[in-house]
Amino acid sequence: MITTELKVEKIAQSKIGDVDFDNLTFGSIFTDHMFECDYIDGVWQNPKISPYQPLTIDPSAKVFHYGQAVFEGMKAYRDDNDDIWMFRPDQNQKRINISAERLDMPAFPKDLFFEGLTALLKLDKEWIKKGDDSALYIRPFSMATETCVSASAANQYKFMIICSPVQSYYTGDVRVVFADKYSRSANGGVGYAKAAGNYAASFYPAKLAKEQGYDQVVWTDADKHEFLEEAGTMNVFFRVNDTLLTAPTSDRILDGITRKSLLEIIKADNIDLEVRKVSVTEIVEAAKKGELKEMFGSGTAAVISPISAFSHGDYSYEMPTMEDSFAKHLKKRLTDIQRNKSEDQFGWRYKV
Ligand SMILES: *Cc1c(COP(=O)(O)O)cnc(C)c1O
């Protein structure tokens, strides 16, 4: 029977007592419940919340063969009054459907997204801990479940939301390599989508970077490797003297919600900002002249990750330590809004 009414099956006994919340490895422990909904015969149906558990999926499901899979990443926070907040979840809801469209997957309806999300968070709210270091990382995703190995878009899908308690992870010392051989995305490609395959394709170049003592790759344009685009799962900002630079988004660059929120804060705080193509040459020149003051990545997982060094070809550069760091200022501004510690001047908070 087709129904769009949310069914809830609660866990008999919570697993929360077994979790050491002071020693969490990012994204490895999951809460008591999960949300799922299936797309069959052109209709999203049977939304349900059930105890977190493995799925049984046929080996011929198209997701395993052709990678039709998209995801999102968002967070929920508990403030000192025990209210639960999210940050611009409407943006994630829109973006997963933008990603889905590019992979010829069906959009997931907004009302079901928010109904499933809020019901799941209310059920697992004890997993959202107080404190500046704690958050619940939320992972919505969608995948092709049709059982058939012919190479075409599936006619069946499963949408899910799972949640993982996290501590703000220490990213103090991110060292990056500017890509000069590999690419993560192409013109007309899927770079702007949070498509699973984008990440699979980035792991090998990232491994090579690690072998050279770096943590991540900053991707450049696929044509000439001339312009700096974004890091692994983060958009990237450069501070040259007192001006912040970041690339405009495009079909190769993911439109990060952290990035676009930072742009608003930067403008409101009257920090000089240029959203334009940023060339490898100008950043290397700025570094040589001592004008490159900061580099940082922006994304939901770490909010802002300061970058402490970069390498490009034979050239390598260690960033100076800044007293009046823009990264630090912006991280505080944004996390204070996210955690209900400051006025929400942009209307970004969402009370669960
Ligand atoms: C998720 C992601 C980002 C950051 O997006 P946010 O919405 O800020 O979390 C940036 N680049 C890539 C490739 C990503 O996957």
Helix content: 10-25%
What is the name of the CATH superfamily of the largest domain? Answer: Aminotransferase class 4, branched-chain amino acid transferase, N-terminal domain
Low-confidence stretches: none
Instruction: Kindly report the oligomeric state of this protein.
Output: single chain
Which series of helices and strands comes N to C?
A: EEEHEEEHHEEEHEEEEHEEHEEEHE
Briefly, what CATH class of the largest domain?
Alpha Beta
Q: Compute the number of strand runs.
A: 19
- Gyration radius, rounded: 21 Å
CATH second-level architecture of the largest domain:
2-Layer Sandwich
Distinct helical segment count: 7
How much β-strand is present in the residues? 25-35%
Tell me the major beta sheet.
9 strands, mixed
Structure, described:
With 352 residues, the protein is of the alpha+beta class. The chain folds into 2 domains: 7-166, 2-Layer Sandwich (D-amino Acid Aminotransferase, Chain A, domain 1), CATH 3.30.470; 174-333, D-amino Acid Aminotransferase, subunit A, domain 2 (D-amino Acid Aminotransferase, Chain A, domain 2, Alpha-Beta Barrel), CATH 3.20.10.10. It has 7 helices and 19 strands. The protein has helices at 62-66, 89-102, 110-123, 196-211, 257-268, 280-288, 326-338, and strands at residues 7-8, 33-40, 43-51, 69-71, 74-78, 84-87, 134-144, 157-167, 174-178, 216-220, 227-231, 234-240, 243-246, 272-275, 278-279, 292-299, 303-312, 315-318, 349-351. Strands 1, 2, 3, 4, 5, 6, 7, 8 and 19 form a 9-stranded mixed β-sheet that branches. The model has no long low-confidence stretch (mean pLDDT 96). Bound molecules: pyridoxal-5'-phosphate.
